[in-house]
Amino acid sequence: MVTVHDVARTAGVSIATVSRALSNPSMVATATRERVESAAAALGYVPNLQAAALRAGRTGAIGLLVPDLANPYFAAIAQGVAETAREQGLGVFVVDSQEDPEAEPGLLRRLARQTDGVILASPRAVEADRAVAGTTPVVVVNQTGPRAVAADFASGVHQAVAHLVALGHRQIAYVGGPAASWGDAQRRTALAAEVRDRGADGLEVLLLGVFAPTVDGGESAVDAVAASSATAVVTYNDVVAVGLVRALRARGVRVPDDLSVVSFDDTYLAGLVTPALTSVRTDLRALGRFAARQLVEPTDAAEPLTLHPMHLEVRDSTATPRA
User: Fold this and answer.
1) Carries keyword Flavoprotein (predicted)?
2) Taking the mean position of all CA atoms in its chain, how far away is CA 309?
3) Residues 65-85: b if buried by 16+ CB within 10 A, e if exposed
4) Domains and CATH numbers, the chain
5) pTM for this model (two decimals)
6) Residue 321 has pLDDT above 70, yes or no
């Protein structure tokens, strides 16, 4: 299938120039427009009418709702969204709910009124998403919906547990995330499946509760972790792991000598802390780019939920348990 990228490469111009030349020719120099049109004709490229209609909407912008833009996880997704929007000649309005689930439905509705489509990267505003989807194009990240993209958490959990079991760990604690988080529920379901499938290994997973997906949330989990019999901990995300490791160190608990830690997301934080975190990663910018493409170039053949692969990055926060 010929894409706008192929036309841009053949014509020797940017993707944004191709989009302008084909959707708003008056904005492009005649010679450039003719070069783009010739390349498109030679390749048999047919512009996506749905994307053109979105660009011709009342704002020429798409919206992105995130729960915490300071979290590098959502910042990376936002970068991916912005890259694709720029290629399509669209602006991006980013709204940060600051981890306030009660504010998210109202923010989402307001964002939908001000843009031509919305990407919802918050794991909680499900009902609001369904209501807005009836009037505005919506793509959701890390939850289910008519058009959704998510990390393959089942695969990520499997890799994390397999790594810890191979090291000799049999009691693993999980420091969970927000109660209404779809991604947290996926992690818990996958952990239960690991216990079921590894019955012969004597694996036990201890669910330690619900914690804020922040550094403070990780620090607040230290009592539950210290009171458990776990030799390894899996945390909801890197940010939680940073707080937990810091609180453990303050108590004289050494990672990984006394306790192994595996986190999720593999943001830049994972490599900055000491010890560097073993973390389950997905390409977050690719996740954002895919979500934006689903919004501006929807296809009838698209699956309701597209899963992106995860990969375990082994670093210094995991080791064999103490004898």
Assistant:
1) no
2) 11
3) bbbbbebbbbbbbbebbbbbb
4) 4-56 (1.10.260), 61-151+285-308 (3.40.50.2300), 153-281 (3.40.50.2300)
5) 0.78
6) yes
